[in-house]
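Predict structure. Chain length: 51.
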Amino acid sequence: MRYSIMLQIVVGTTLILVGAGAFFGWLQTRPFEEAGQSSTRTWLRTSGAYP
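Prediction complete.
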């Protein structure tokens, strides 16, 4: 019984971490948006917080 609970915790944690990694990887590689739309990257670049 304890092994089952431990396995569920490990699998759940692994899925959360893999999902978060995939999400942030997608954020880093998505294409730029049109110039007319505001984006976080544009805001960071104009504020001097992004090289």
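Summary: Residues 2-29 form the longest helix (28 residues).
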